[in-house]
Amino acid sequence: MEPILTVEELSVRIAGLHILQGVSFTVAPTGVTVLLGRNGVGKTTTLRALVGLTPRNGEVRGTAQMGNRALLGQPTHRLVRSGLGYVPEDRCVFAGLTVAENLRLAERRGSTPAYDRVFALFPELDRRSRQRAGSLSGGQQQMLAIGRVLINDNRLLLVDEPTKGLAPKVVTEVAEVLERVAESVPVLLVEQNLAVVRRLAHDAVVLAAGQVAWTGNAQELLAETELTRSLLGVGSAEVHH
Amino acid sequence: MDAVILLTLTGLGLAALYFLVASGLSLVFGLADVLNFAHGLFLGVGAYATWWAAGNLPGAGPDGLGFVVAVAFGVAAGTLMAVLVELVLIRPLYSRTIEQVLVTVGLSLAGVALLQATWGADARPFPRPEWTRQVTTILGAQVPNGGLLLIVAAVLVLGAILAFLQWTRYGLIIRAGVENREMVTALGIDVRKAFTLVFAIGGAAAALAGALGSVYFGTVSPQQGGSLLIFAFIVVVIGGMGSVVGSAYAAVAVGLLQQFVNYYGTSGLGDICVVALLAVVLLLRPQGIAGKVATA
Amino acid sequence: MTEVKSPEAPSAAVPSELTTESTRWSRLRPFLPLAVLAVALILPYSTLHLPGIFEGALNSPGTLQLLAVCLVFGGLAAGYDLLFGRTGMLSFGHALYFAAGVYGTDILITRAGLPLWQAAPLAIVGGTILAGLIGAVALRTVGIAFAMVTLAFAQVGAILVARDFGGLTGGEEGLPLDVSGVPAGLVGVANTVNLYWLALAYLVVVVFVVHRVSGSPTGRVLAGLRDDERRIGVLGLDPYRFKLVAFTLAGGLAAAGGVVYCLIVGGASPHITSSELTLSLLVMVVLGGPGTRWGPVLGGILYMYLDHRLVSVGSSGAIDALPAFLSRPLSQPLFVLGTVFILAVYFFPGGLASLAPRLTLLRNALSPRRRG
């Protein structure tokens, strides 16, 4: 199968620091591909470069193709309109706006907003539509951040650490939702929680020191405790969580 | 008692002037991160365009409906100026904050010099309807009508901006963009269109301040915008950048403080108290009374 | 927060296939400032007339005074660049510390009757302490908010001076310096040359201090703050303290410039407290080249020169002959300077200092390459 996303020799330099140094990988057209690596290795930088959010003092080189569309160097709003959905780290819901306003913001002229899809996944958002997003719990904010992107049809979703800072029960809920989302749209996921990775991911790309250190089947990676430990610096106890 | 009422109302008149300038500054800063030194120029353009229209534009004049036409012309000129500044000068420097400030600094220097070159450095008498020169007696205090006109105008502008922000699609985009501009673009919205819009709103409000402020003072001069601008900046910081309601509260606080202290204390002491208030607010609450954290 | 680029000293990047001629040039280059300094030192002995550039001979008091003012602003711009170009801080209140030096000296001499040798250090120390205190509050904010807050504090200075609190400042009229407290060698038209040398000495001191600071470990931290403040925070260094040091030092240098300026113009007038003065410092630095050693100095000298000369050029026959819609704006120095400044931001982001390497590249490209 043709990959939905092909990244070649992606390099990002921010304020003189080489954060990514020639990263190449592909994302399968179905299911979840997980981007792994220790803290500060450039996972978030990769997603942000793909969606055109590298800071202005940064420099991006290389290519990234989504289908027949070149991503790098395009303004963010065009990339997103062409079907690249982005759920950022720390959720970034608009705290001063209501839930309904957060969702309404994502509506686009010329396409019908898929509220039924969003509310089927997150009935909570429908019930709380008049509540200010800032007063939602962390888990609810994450649901809103994902729901906001699903208002429109996407060809690929970039999701950055959706379970960060959430209670274990909520982590499971988020993982369930992402599993259902991934049935219809491919996802490139940055995730630290290996239990979630085990549950969702088919392919894995591991970054180390700004380069791709390992690619392959995510389940095979997690099965090899020593390899996981050397690549991600986590113990086997965590892996078998 | 009369003095207190008079000072309150003239203080509110001053506050109205500050608010008209600060509301646009605050929105422009909150959304686009542009510290707009050329905002005083929009005020100057509005004042001079009104002055010019009252004397030269057919249908406009210093009184009655003609005066309304003259002010409308001034506001239109200020709006046009603001839109042109955004499209031609600010937009090519998108997200280069410092360069944008530098360009507005250059524009404020060159623009004021141009006004001065065209109409001279000295203040000129401003055409105004007869009734704005008179006073209205409110609870025994003789309040100048020009000040009351400013207060009414500021309240209407506040209401209009809030309604716009609350009920329109672009209002929603602006409110979201003030919070997190990057995330607005990440939802597929070209936030730069909203930049042009806030410049237009800010330019219109500042031009109105220029026209009505000149009615209040009775004269127009090229430097008028500059001195108002500094207090408008203070109002923006105290109110919290990007918050129109915060600007309104802060404008009232600054206007009243200035008026009362200047009257009961030494002249000029009120201005200093305003800066002291700014320092206190910053020390206690770096993000201002309302709105987002005061960082760039 | 900021994106001020600092074009580094051009001489570092010398292509290997340079001609022998330009190799010699690059070897001589470090001595160029010394040569310019030597010329500046002996300049008052020259009776040369440069019609169109200066009105009188080079050693005439009028020309020397103009040059002295230019030199002081060259130094002021270099000091301001310590904040803007080297640390990335956009202060809109630098006029305050300069004014503290001017009014401090003037008031201490004229009103308190102190001799210059006491008044000058007091004014400088006072200006430095003022900068430290205000910096301590203003640096609680960053970026654009910092700009607004410094502007507001400087406005207090302008109000204090204009309203003449306590009858100290002379209000709108300004305060002429009582010269009885000043050494005879610094008073009178005949001694303008000494003031010129004093201004030159001030400029040399500022350039030296800024050069030493930016070359020191502190200077490297400041450059780090300019490029990315978070990185400095990650290193475990406190950005606030380093910025406060830079802010206070720049304030002290500006106050020292104020002392010299007060002596040159023989008093103080309220326009030096205005925010316009800070804005013109910013224009000088950007026109010259922020973050470079000589750019701000050149920018400051050139700006003040043009500001003075454009007034007389503006009223000259050549400009008057133009149609009114051209001649009127061109007779306003600020219109010309503001427009040039805007164009510079777009087309020469590195300022004058960035022109030199471009010219070098051009010359290298044009000259036939002799190898061997």
Brief synopsis:
Chain A is an alpha/beta fold and 241 residues long. Chain A has eleven helices and ten strands.
Task: Give a written overview of the molecule.
- Chain B: Its main location: membrane.
- Chain B: It is a multi-pass membrane protein.
- Chain B: One of its GO terms (molecular function) is transmembrane transporter activity.
- The complex is a heterotrimer of chains A (241), B (296) and C (372).
- In chain A, the strands form two sheets. A six-stranded mixed β-sheet of chain A has the order 6-7-8-3-9-10, with helices on both faces.
- Chain A has a single domain, classed as 3-Layer(aba) Sandwich (Rossmann fold).
- The longest helix of chain A is centred in the C-terminal third of the chain and has 14 residues, at 168-181.
- With 241 residues, chain A is an alpha/beta fold.
- In chain A, helix 3 (99-105) packs parallel to helix 6.
- In chain A, 35% of the residues lie in helices and 27% in strands.
- In chain A, strand 9 and strand 10 form a beta hairpin.
- In chain B, 61% of the residues are buried.
- Chain C has 16 helices and two strands.
- The model of chain C is unreliable at 1-18 (pLDDT under 50).
- A two-stranded antiparallel ribbon of chain C has the order 1-2.
- Chain C has helices at residues 20-28, 32-42, 61-87, 94-110, 116-138, 143-163, 192-215, 217-227, 229-234, 239-265, 275-288, 295-314, 317-320, 324-330, 333-347, 355-366, and strands spanning 175-176, 267-268.
- Chain C has a domain at 55-274.
- Chains A and C meet through loops of A and loops of C.
The largest beta-sheet of chain B arranges its strands as 1-4
Order of helices and strands of chain C: HHHHHHEHHHHEHHHHHH
Q: Calculate the terminal CA-CA distance of chain B, rounded to whole Å.
A: 44 Å
Average pLDDT rating of chain B = 89
Q: What's the order of the H and E elements of chain B?
A: HHHHEHEEHHHHEHHH
- Average pLDDT over all residues of chain C: 83
- Unreliable stretches of chain B (pLDDT < 50, length at least 5) are 291-296
Shape of chain C: globular
Number of helices of chain B: 12
Q: What summary fits the major beta sheet of chain B?
A: 2 strands, antiparallel
Portion in strands of chain C: under 5%
What structural class should be given to the helix and strand makeup of chain C?
A: mainly alpha
Shape descriptor of chain B: globular
What's the helical proportion of residues of chain C?
A: 55-70%
**Sheet with the most strands: spatial strand order of chain C:** 1-2
The number of helical segments of chain C is: 16
Strand content of chain B: under 5%
Radius of gyration of chain C: 22 Å
Share of residues in helices of chain B? over 70%
